[in-house]
Design a protein that fits this description.
The structure is a single chain. The chain is of the alpha/beta class. The chain has two domains: 65 residues, no CATH class; 294 residues, Aldolase class I (TIM Barrel, Alpha-Beta Barrel), CATH 3.20.20. The chain contains 14 helices and 16 strands. The strands form five sheets. Strands 8-15-14-13-12-11-10-9 form an eight-stranded parallel beta sheet. It has a two-stranded antiparallel ribbon with strand order 1-2. The chain has a two-stranded antiparallel sheet with strand order 3-16.
Length: 465
C-alpha cells in the first residue's frame, strides 16, 4: 500500500480586516443588564472578540462581521434586542457564479486548512445551474470504516497522466510493446495558468513553491524563469502559439508540458519527444463551439496523451450566446470517447468553473480524470474577485505587495482542505480510489434527468432558457 498522502499545514491569519457575512445589531436602549446575558454565553465568544476588535479599530468601514450565524443570542435574549444583519460589503464580493459564500468559504479554508462548518447551516438553493444541478450519492456515509479522513480504510486520491495501452501483450514475462510514460500525482488537481484578467507576475514563484509543497504540478508560461534550485518536476511549461521555447536542459528536468492546440499538433509533439522522450505532452483545447469536436478528434490520434479542455472562469462555453456548462461538455466528450472505444487510452483534464472541492468530485464523475484551478488560489490570498479588476488597477486585497510565506501558506492550506473534503465525499460514496470515480454517474443524481423522469411524461420536456 502506498504511503498516505498528507499535506503539512499551519494556520495563516488574514492580513486585511475580515469581510464576514453576519453581524449582530444590538439595540441597547431597553437592555435589562441581565446577569446571565446571552452575550456571555456565546459559544464562539464573538462578543468579547468584537469588544477587542473595536478597541483597535483603525478603519471605520471595517466593522466587526464575524458572527457564525448560530442565532443563539437572537433567540435567547429576553428583551428581543438582538437581530442578525448582513454585511453590505460581503454582498459585493465576486459575481453571479463566484458568490460571496464561495469566497468566504475559501478564505476560511486558506486560513485554517479545515473543512468549514456554518452555524446557520446551508442557506443556498438545492438546485441551480452548473454543478448545483448535480448531487453526489452519500449512501455509504453510515459505514464507520469509510468515515472519510477519520476512517480506517485507505482512500487513494492519486491519478495518472499519460496515454495508456488498450491492452497489454506479453511474450512470456516480458511486454511486447514498450509502456508509454506516465506522470503520477497524489491528488486529481493541477494548478492552471494564472487568469489573464488577474495576472500578477509576482505570484509565479509563490505558485511554484505551493506546487512543490503539495507535490502537485503547476502550469507556468514558458516565459517564466524558475530559480536555479527549483524542483522542475512540479512545473509544466505552457507553450502557446507565440511562446518562446523552453531551454532543452530545463525541459528535460520536467515531467509534463502543455501546448496550445494547432494544426501541427503531431509535429510539435514529435519535436518535444525528440528532446525528452519520457515527458508527457498535454494539449490545451478551449471549449468554444468547435472545442468538443476538436477534443474528440485529438483523442483519436496515437500521439496525443493528455487533453486539457478549458471553459471560462465561470465554467461556461466560450464565445457562445447560450453557453453550455463544463459539466455537460465533459460528459459529452467522455461518453463519445466511450462509444469510440478509446476513453481508457486518453487522459482528460477539465478546467474552468472549479470553485469548490465538491466540484472536483463532480467533474470527475462527469468523465474528467482530473481538474485544473487558478482562481481559488487567488481567492485564498483574500482576493475579492472584483468585476472591474484588471492588471495595474489598485487591489483592495493588496496582492501587489504580498509576503511569499503568507501566500504559500494560504494556498497550501486551501489545497489541503480540498483534499480532505474530496476524501470525505469519496468515503461517503463508498469509493476508495479516485481513478474508479471517473465517469461513474451512478454515484450521482442529475436534476435534469430526475425532472424528466418524474414530470416529463406529464408536462413534456423543459424548454431551454
Amino acid at each position: 500500500m502506498p504511503e498516505k498522502y498528507h499535506i503539512k499545514t499551519h494556520p495563516v491569519p488574514p492580513r486585511r480586516p475580515r469581510i464576514g457575512k453576519h453581524g449582530v445589531v444590538d439595540w441597547r436602549e431597553d437592555c435589562a443588564r441581565c446577569h446571565n446575558c446571552v452575550k456571555k454565553a456565546c459559544v464562539y465568544d464573538r462578543y468579547r472578540q468584537e469588544a477587542e476588535y473595536i478597541q483597535n479599530l483603525r478603519d471605520v468601514d471595517a466593522l466587526f462581521f464575524d458572527c457564525m450565524g448560530c442565532f443563539s443570542c437572537v433567540q435567547d435574549c429576553t428583551k428581543n434586542l438582538l437581530c442578525l444583519s448582513i454585511n453590505p460589503a460581503y454582498e459585493k464580493l465576486g459575481n453571479s457564479y463566484w458568490k460571496p459564500d464561495i469566497i468566504k468559504t475559501t478564505w476560511l479554508q486558506a486560513e485554517t486548512a479545515k473543512i468549514p462548518v456554518s452555524g446557520a447551516g446551508y442557506g443556498g438553493p438545492f438546485s441551480g445551474r452548473g454543478f448545483d444541478s448535480m448531487w453526489t450519492d452519500m449512501s455509504e456515509i453510515v459505514r464507520p470504516t469509510r468515515d472519510g479522513i477519520h476512517g480506517r480504510e485507505y482512500i487513494s486520491t492519486s491519478v495518472d497522466l499519460g496515454r495508456k495501452l488498450p491492452f497489454l501483450a506479453l511474450n512470456g514475462d516480458q511486454a511486447v510493446a514498450s509502456l508509454p510514460p506516465l506522470v503520477s500525482i497524489p491528488m486529481p488537481l493541477i494548478i492552471d495558468l494564472s487568469s489573464p484578467k488577474h495576472t500578477l507576475p509576482k505570484l509565479d514563484t509563490v505558485i511554484e513553491q505551493t506546487a512543490a509543497s503539495t507535490e502537485l504540478i503547476a502550469i507556468m508560461d514558458s516565459r517564466y524563469q524558475p530559480a536555479e534550485n527549483a524542483n522542475l518536476e512540479h512545473i509544466a511549461f505552457y507553450l502557446g502559439p507565440d511562446s518562446p521555447p523552453v531551454p532543452k536542459e530545463t525541459l528535460r528536468k520536467t515531467r509534463l508540458v502543455e501546448i496550445a492546440d494547432c494544426g501541427t499538433v503531431r509535429e510539435r509533439i514529435k519535436e518535444i519527444k525528440s528532446i525528452h522522450p519520457e515527458i508527457v505532452v498535454a494539449i490545451r483545447v478551449d471549449l468554444t463551439a468547435m472545442g468538443i469536436g476538436r477534443a474528440i478528434e485529438l483523442a483519436g490520434l496515437d500521439e496525443v496523451e493528455v487533453i486539457h479542455i478549458v471553459a471560462d472562469a465561470n465554467g461556461n462555453e466560450l464565445t457562445a450566446q447560450k453557453p453550455r456548462f463544463l459539466k455537460d461538455m465533459t460528459r459529452h466528450i467522455h461518453t463519445t470517447l466511450i462509444e469510440k472505444g478509446i476513453r481508457d487510452e486518453i487522459t482528460l483534464m477539465a478546467g474552468g468553473g472549479i470553485a469548490l472541492p465538491e466540484h472536483v468530485a463532480k467533474a470527475i464523475i462527469c468523465g474528467a480524470d482530473l481538474v485544473t484551478i487558478n482562481l481559488p488560489l487567488l481567492v485564498a490570498l483574500e482576493c475579492h474577485l472584483c468585476e472591474s479588476c484588471h492588471p495595474g488597477m489598485p487591489c483592495p486585497a493588496r496582492l501587489d505587495n504580498i509576503d511569499p510565506n503568507y501566500a504559500v501558506g494560504r494556498m497550501t492550506n486551501l489545497i489541503a482542505a480540498w483534499h480532505d473534503q474530496l476524501i470525505e465525499v469519496m468515503g461517503a460514496m463508498g469509493m476508495r480510489e479516485a481513478r474508479r470515480l471517473r465517469g461513474d454517474v451512478g454515484r450521482a443524481m442529475f436534476f435534469e434527468n430526475l425532472e424528466e423522469e418524474t414530470f416529463g411524461k406529464l408536462y413534456g420536456k423543459r424548454k431551454s432558457d
